[in-house]
Design the sequence.
């Protein structure tokens, strides 16, 4: 074989080897690009524009669906990035973590195609891939089946375009509307988040006021030491939260003031002197009786001798009790049946709300030892400004909220009663007290809690209302976040009106049917203030 022929064969082999890997990479790259919804990259398709993205947010059947997908084009795959949220709890939505999704594309002629995602791409996100076969209008439905929640969401009308160019041409021009704030689903699912629609409601007119929960008059008591004394040792000790009955002994106090400045020798000498004086008085009585019998003295002198005897007997009894008291306080034990102890008893049925009882401790007079309250019923005392006082003169009820509780409490003729309306304006605060009594059977409300109160005026107002929890204070301006899409919101200043039952009338800023963030609005505000919200969408 000639040298030139060998060179030709070598060059031909080298060319074939270089072409084979290139053909393999092109095939793999083509499949990936097509599967991603980007279209073909060879031939005339290389100049074809990129398909536009579409998005939809729907609330239906206890579910929130936020979905992004490439526009439907005949023969091309459109992966539906479907974010499913369990929206049944108005106090907080939850991410869906289990289930399967079936997407049904129904054409105008009645035929339909189904595409299934057997499992989640990751928590909250399913990705069924739709590949339409016909151009024209149709409807799209997504069915979620799972242990956590099941439901059907009707996405509504969709269009299958014949070509990508037709899909691009169908995109409406941007209108340059109000700016939006982003808050991704992954962020929503990590916090307490919920939305609610602005809808017509009948609200009761009311007056806002600050208030405080207090014990019902006569259903609380403070037990203080009536004298200086030592707390008895060996008795049951009252403690915080203890349930007590009316008349139950809570503290036994042995007085110490009478013996505090005297030693044992002095007390014993005083006792001996008293007994000696008693003996002398007895003899004087006997002598006076004999002399009166002999008519040697008048009856008046006999009476004086008898009185002196009674005084001496009383003094002996007193010195003996004082001596016994001294000995008991020195040993720290309670006195016997002689009864030299004070018993502090509960004047009401209830629970111990304060206790400072240490067995054997010596306390001064007036020191608070135990407090008892009956928490089954409470008073709500609202402080109404004098300008609003005439409007609540005949108020029949109120609603109020306290820190730590998501829901409001109400008191009206069915659940409680109005006790009194103050007749004097407080000079310092320029307010009038209005008192309501309400039941507290579970004891969840505590005396001393501060409350934000709305007192009903008897007037009713019908208007568009949103949950009061949707309001955010933005530099002194009431603000809400209105949903534009599943992950984008309008920040709107609003003018609130009547507030009642956890809802507030919106006079300006929100239209009927718009959805506002009812839980998590402050998180959106804080995230935008700190720059934690990413400017661009997430990758799926």
Sequence:
């Amino acid at each position: 074989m000639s040298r030139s022929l060998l060179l030709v064969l070598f060059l031909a082999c080298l060319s074939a080897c270089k072409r084979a890997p290139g053909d393999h990479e092109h095939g793999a790259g083509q499949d990936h690009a097509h599967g991603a919804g980007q279209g073909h990259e060879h031939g005339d398709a290389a100049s074809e524009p990129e398909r536009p993205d579409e998005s939809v947010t729907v609330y239906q059947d206890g579910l929130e669906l936020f979905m992004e997908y490439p526009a439907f084009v005949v023969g091309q795959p459109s992966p539906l990035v479907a974010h499913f949220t369990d929206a049944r709890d108005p106090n907080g939505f939850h991410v869906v973590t289990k289930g399967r999704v079936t997407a049904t594309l129904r054409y105008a002629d009645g035929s339909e195609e189904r595409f299934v995602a057997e499992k989640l791409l990751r928590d909250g996100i399913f990705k069924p891939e739709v590949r339409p076969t016909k151009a024209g209008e149709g409807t799209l439905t997504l069915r979620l089946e799972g242990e956590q929640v099941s439901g059907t969401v009707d996405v509504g009308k969709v269009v299958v375009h014949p070509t990508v160019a037709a899909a691009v041409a169908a995109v409406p021009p941007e209108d340059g509307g109000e700016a939006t704030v982003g808050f991704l689903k992954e962020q929503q699912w990590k916090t307490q988040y919920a939305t609610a629609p602005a809808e017509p409601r009948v609200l009761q007119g009311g007056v806002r006021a600050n208030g405080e929960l207090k014990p019902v008059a006569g259903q609380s008591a403070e037990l203080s030491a009536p004298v200086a004394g030592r707390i008895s040792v060996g008795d049951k000790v009252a403690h915080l939260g203890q349930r007590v009955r009316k008349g139950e002994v809570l503290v036994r106090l042995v007085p110490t003031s009478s013996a505090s400045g005297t030693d044992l020798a002095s007390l014993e000498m005083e006792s001996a002197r008293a007994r000696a004086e008693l003996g002398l008085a007895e003899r004087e009585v006997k002598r006076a009786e004999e002399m009166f019998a002999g008519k040697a003295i008048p009856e008046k002198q006999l009476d004086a001798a008898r009185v002196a005897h009674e005084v001496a007997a009383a003094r002996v009894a007193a010195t003996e009790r004082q001596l016994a008291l001294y000995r008991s306080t020195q040993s720290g034990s309670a006195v016997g049946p002689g009864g030299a102890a004070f018993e502090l008893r509960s004047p009401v049925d209830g629970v111990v709300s304060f206790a400072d009882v240490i067995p054997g401790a010596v306390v001064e007079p007036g020191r608070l030892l135990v407090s008892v309250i009956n928490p089954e019923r409470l008073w709500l005392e609202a402080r109404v400004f004098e300008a609003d006082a005439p409007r609540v003169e005949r108020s029949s009820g109120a609603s109020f909220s306290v820190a730590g509780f998501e829901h409001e409490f109400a008191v009206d003729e069915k659940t409680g009663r109005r006790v009194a309306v103050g007749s004097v304006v407080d000079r310092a605060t320029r307010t009038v007290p209005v008192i309501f009594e309400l039941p507290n059977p579970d004891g969840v409300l505590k005396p001393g809690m501060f409350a934000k109160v709305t007192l009903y005026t008897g007037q009713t107002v019908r208007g568009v209302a949103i949950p009061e929890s949707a309001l955010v204070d933005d530099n002194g301006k009431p603000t809400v976040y209105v949903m534009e899409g599943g992950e984008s919101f309008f920040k709107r200043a609003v003018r609130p009106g009547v507030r009642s039952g956890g809802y507030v009338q919106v006079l300006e800023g929100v239209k009927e049917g718009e959805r506002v963030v009812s839980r998590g609005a402050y998180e959106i505000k804080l995230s935008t203030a700190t720059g934690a919200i990413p400017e661009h969408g997430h990758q799926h």
In short: The longest helix spans residues 3-35. Confidence is low (pLDDT under 50) at residues 1-46, 329-339, 533-537. The first strand starts at residue 53 and ends at 60.
